[in-house]
Amino acid sequence: MICLLALAALLYLRGWSLLHRESPHRFTPERRAAYLAGLGALFIALASPLDAFGNFLLEAHMAQHLLLILIAPPLILMGQPLLPMLRGLPQATLKNGLGPFLRWRALRRIGRVLTHPALTWPAMTVAIVFWHMPRFYELALNSSVWHGAEHACFFYAAILFWWPVIQVWPSRPQWPRWMLIPYLVFADIVNTALSAWLVFSTHVVYRTYALAPRLGGISALDDQTVAGAIMWVPGSLAYLIPAFVLAMQALNGPRHQPRLVRIQPAPRRPARQRWDLLRVPVIGAILRQRYFRPAIQCILFALAVAVVIDGFFGPQIAPMNLAGVLPWTYWRGFAVIALLAGGNLFCMACPFMLPRNLGRRLFSARRRWPGMLRSKWLAAGLLVLYFWAYEAFSLWSSPWWTAWIVVGYFVTALVVDGWFRGASFCKYVCPIGQFHFLNALVSPLEVKVRSAAVCASCDTHDCIRGNAAGHGCELHLFQPRKSGNFDCTFCLDCVHACPHDNVGIMKNPPAAALYRNGGVDRGSSGIGRLSSRPDAAALAWVLVFGALINAAAMVDPVMQSMHSLTAIVGLKSMLPVTTMLFVSGIVFAPMLLAGICGAASAWLGRVEGSRRKRMTRSFAFALVPLGFSLWVAHFSFHLIVGWRSLAPVLDRILGSSVPAMTANLPGWWPALQLLLLDSGLILSLYAAWRTARRQVPEAGRALRLVTPWVVLAIAFYAAAVWILFQPMQMRGMVM
Amino acid sequence: MRRALFLFLAASARLFADGGMMILHQPAPPYVITVFAAPAPPRVGMADLSILVQNGETQEPVLDAGVQIEITRNGIPVRVPATHDRAQNKLLYAVSVPFDEPGNWRYAVLLHAAASRKPIIVPGQIAILGEPPKIVSYAGYLALPFVFLVLFALHQWLRGMPADPPAR
Fold it and tell me: Does B162 contact chain A (CB < 8 Å)?
């Protein structure tokens, strides 16, 4: 409630300050004060001690209702909130998002019908009489849901009731002003009748108050009389004072009729510079420090060494070992949150840079990476292998194996980058890197040029060639022609190398690389068109379906089914069943689904054979936001539940005492997980739609083209929701 | 006036009210005990029980009593203290109690107060409803993408429509 009120206030204040500059006589400080006072009244009604006494005293409950009906709505409407709220929105949202709705004639007609006095008066009267009937009043008192419905009903009916009285600009009056005098007077008569019923009743009308504890020595009947009096006197004043003002206006002559003003877009302002993380004070300066990256790499390297040492020599109990806790609970959770909030920050802090650099010094890295391996196939295969091994060998529960994986990673990085030129390990081998490259397509930050004009006049291309100030991009991403975060390690070498200081970490709409400026059909330096690369599409499918299978393997019903299947087949080990699940879930199912959806899409959209494969690959990337949202929901769940898992490990290592372990999941967490999935689905559907529009110009045909992919995305979403609703195995933590 | 101010300030200690439905209101001389339960109606899971203790003669809230709730779980009575700290409305003593399954649960309020040497025991019963299916509990969140989908379809359709003539 407080968040909603704060948002409403912020939106209004932002819009009001813009409109006040353009039209100070209409958007006055008094209107602003009225609006804020209205929100204040709403706050007092719903989130103050008044509500606390609602269960004890009818008079408190009545005061609360009066605030909701007679104080907050007129004050809010006196603030003329329509235009300020709209102008408070970002310009693009207003123009492109709400614009078509605001221009829609049918919606305006509905608005005029809803605010017509012939409808608003009965609506308000019915709402008040209905909810004061003892049966329904009791229903609201005994159910928080119905209580909320009652309050919402009062508030929105009152907004409609007061609309024609205050005549919110720029709506037009639908009745002569003098007609609103009887409108208010008759409303007061209803109010008076209800009040009199409460005041003069000889018994307690609402049973709950007859039984409620009496505070302050006031009897239930006296309480009811006071409540009736509150409703009668201040309530009547709230109706009669505006009626009196209207009468005076009618006697003083015709009122100035406001002109209907169409909502015009704001005058074009000079283009603002996009938000750039490197220009944020302090943070930008720290990020640009030459030794910042090596420093955070050293920290992660030290942690990796600690994991290896503890994994080999510590107790082989995962919750008591750094190798059981740091990688599987903390690192994964923080990595996906960093991707969600920023970008590929893990690669920026990659601990494997140190062995890579060591390898280059030792072996001088002269060879070129083999041509047949210059793709993502190897990395995609390693990812499948990793997902399978994680489950098949319970890697999370084996500190020893975890330590070996880290050592294997160090050795591979050292050998590959010691032997081959460039960042071959990052680009073609590292599965963790591929996870980050692909999911960073959804991230809100991107390393890119600040001004294309500056790059157009540059002929040294230091951002890729390098200079004395820094390396060029090792992954061959030429900044002026780079699109999205794919293959970008956020190393900031281009930032250091650019002599024009023209590379920043810019803000982007989430997943913009999937739908803006040609999306995955647009060529990007060092990558080419993602839609032309089956290896990249395969990587996307592995990671999207990997999210589902990885999470599914931890939930109770799936684990039970795997055990049952193992028993039915008569196997001693679960390895074959696990292998079957992972190979079919991450390899065969995506291939089959891609084939079916691609064929159905091409058939429905009448796309010719030669374009089918590329189109299917384009659509494959549209599912990336959905897969990423499941990774975030899953890993952050483990992070939040196992937040204190480090304590017993530190206790063992440092010898200090550890507070009692608890693993309580906050009540709001499932809702947040669902919101993450919702966002992923919405972004995926939008990216799929934009992909379809790129393929065919006609909207109807694009709709047919996208339909199979929409069905697939919704089925994926349903499966993900089902998984999140199941009890999930907690791994590597003390419970 | 001072009493009203005291009550207001006591309840103002937190911004939000305890709320909930009244499940017991019973004289227990020399006191009157009232028990509220939230959420309303209480369901399987954690439920907040809030207890108001009043002086039976003056109806003044008693704020210095020791209050416990006794619930029988799996045949074993369990006592948990109810305190002002856990209550949002500081006139109440509150405690969170887990109810594992639906049905009628028996409980007792145990009151240790200065006015009586022996603890006062007030038995009660609370009807716990079953947990609604998660799909119902989170229906709003599950519907959200589909609401967006419908709005987006409408948006795209409207963008394809010819623009309205300017209003006169």
Answer: no
Encoded tokens for A332: 């994964």
pLDDT in tens, B47-89: 888 888 888 888 788 888 889 999 887 778 888 888 888 777 7
Amino acid at A692: A
Count of domains for chain B? 1
Q: How far is A147 from chain B (nearest CA, A)?
A: 10
CA A667 to chain centre: 18
Assigned domain for B28 exists: yes
d(CA A589, CA A580): 11
Interface contact B59-A213, CB threshold 8 A: yes
Q: What is the pTM of this model?
A: 0.81
CATH number, residue B90:
2.60.40.10
CB contact under 8 A, B19 and A51: yes
Of residues A160 and A261, more confidence is placed in: A160
pLDDT of the residue at B6: 42
Asked if B7 has any chain A CB less than 8 Å from its own CB, the reply is: yes
Answer whether residue B19 is part of any domain.
Answer: yes
**Candidates A103, A213, A670; nearest CB to B25:** A213
Q: Let me know: does A656 contact A669? Beta carbons within 8 Å.
A: no
Between β-strands B31-38 and B45-55, what pairing exists: parallel, antiparallel or unpaired? Answer: antiparallel
For residue B81, being part of any structural domain is answered with yes
Are residues B58 and A217, on separate chains, in Cβ contact within 8 Å? yes
Task: Give ∠ CA A494-A500-A502 in degrees, rounded to 5.
Answer: 60
CA pair distance A401, A561, nearest whole angstrom: 27
CA trace torsion B8, B14, B19, B23 (10° rounding) = -80
| Residue (of A420, A358, A419, A408) closest to A382 by Cα position | A408
Beta bridge partners of A467: A470
Alpha helices in A202-344 (DSSP H): 207-211, 220-251, 283-288, 292-313, 322-325, 332-341
Whether residue B1 lies within 8 A of chain A, CB to CB, comes out as no
Distance from CA of B57 to the nearest CA of A (A): 9
Q: How many CB pairs under 8 A join A and B?
A: 111
Taking contacts as CB-CB distances below 8 angstroms, the residues of chain B near A104 are 158
Task: Flag whether B168 is in a domain.
Answer: no
Q: How far apart are CA A544 and CA A593, in angstroms?
A: 12
The CA distance from B117 to the nearest CA of chain A, in Å, is 24
Domain that holds residue B50: 2-130
Q: The complex's ipTM?
A: 0.79
Q: How far is CA A546 from CA A582, A591, A625, A721, in A?
A: 8, 13, 13, 15
Comparing CB atoms, the residue among A49, A105, A213 nearest residue B54 is A213
User: What's the token pair of residue A563?
Assistant: 């055990």
- Which chain A residues have a beta carbon less than 8 Å from that of B135? 725
Nearest CA in chain B to A218: B59
Average confidence (pLDDT) over A634-661: 78
> Tens of pLDDT along A407-421?
999 999 999 999 998
Q: Which amino acid is at B157?
A: W
Residue whose token pair is 């119905």: A146
- Average pLDDT of chain A is 87
Contact B25 A49 (CB under 8 A): no
